[in-house]
UniProtKB/TrEMBL annotation:
Residues 76-145 form the Thioesterase domain. One of its GO terms (molecular function) is thiolester hydrolase activity. This is Acyl-coenzyme A thioesterase THEM4. It catalyses: tetradecanoyl-CoA + H2O = tetradecanoate + CoA + H(+); (9Z)-octadecenoyl-CoA + H2O = (9Z)-octadecenoate + CoA + H(+); decanoyl-CoA + H2O = decanoate + CoA + H(+); octanoyl-CoA + H2O = octanoate + CoA + H(+). CDD domains: PaaI_thioesterase. Its EC number is 3.1.2.2. It comes from Desulfuromonas soudanensis. It is a peripheral membrane protein. GO terms for cellular component: cytoplasm; membrane.
Length: 161
């Protein structure tokens, strides 16, 4: 019997510039929360996402993120769930970076524009409030004046230390 090997085509993308804006300081996410955030941040040279975290001058968390070909949804553009995963990670992490030990309880996203693949975009986050166990974080995925998605994220602090 003749065995035909399936050929897997791997699209190898070149290097990507994820440098931050002037005044941004690199932020070490694994040092704060451990190495579990593999879904979005796990393959810095892969073809899904490439991510680098920063804090801006106001100490808010920022991310430069490249949406690679493996995030495709509509042809040539990011899947909405791919943007949701990014917002889940970045906005949850923003609460951690502000000193709150949380998980995301509710994430409300509006998709505003199709996000072209292989684009480097910025995720902005702002911790809006912290009251009791509830930490509200707002954020958006944008490039210049173009907003691709914006979100309101309710984080809930975990019990215990
Ligand atoms: C194992 C973990 C180790 C972690 C250590 C390392 C982690 C490293 C993290 C890295 C940074 C994060 C980045 C990734 C972020 C994610 O991806 S997290 C994963 C996605 N999220 C989840 O899977 C969360 C699943 N949900 C849950 O675990 C539980 O529902 C929650 C959110 C902890 C809340 O449950 P609970 O502790 O029983 O609290 P509960 O009493 O129901 O609610 C407390 C309050 O919050 C309100 N509330 C709760 N949920 C909601 C909601 N969905 N909408 C509105 N209000 C709500 C309640 O109404 C209540 O309000 P009050 O009555 O006090 O006014």
């Amino acid at each position: 019997m003749r065995v035909v090997k399936k050929k897997v085509l791997v699209d190898v993308c070149g290097p990507v510039d994820l440098s931050g804006d002037e005044g941004w300081v690199a932020f070490d996410a694994p040092a704060l929360v451990g190495a579990s955030l593999r879904f979005v941040s796990g393959e810095p040279d892969g073809n899904r996402y490439r991510v680098r975290y920063y804090r801006d001058a106001e100490q808010q968390l920022r991310a430069r993120i490249w949406f690679g070909p493996e995030t495709e949804g509509p042809p040539g553009h990011s899947h909405g769930g791919a943007m949701a995963a990014v917002l889940d990670e970045v906005l949850g992490l923003a609460a951690w970076a502000a000193g709150h030990r949380v998980v995301v309880g509710n994430l409300n996203i509006s998709f505003r524009n199709l996000l072209p693949l292989e684009e480097v975009v910025t995720v902005e986050s702002t911790v809006i409030s912290a009251a009791g166990r509830k930490v509200m974080v707002h954020g958006r995925i944008c490039l210049g004046e173009t907003v691709f998605a914006e979100a309101e994220c309710l984080c809930i602090t975990l019990p215990g230390k």
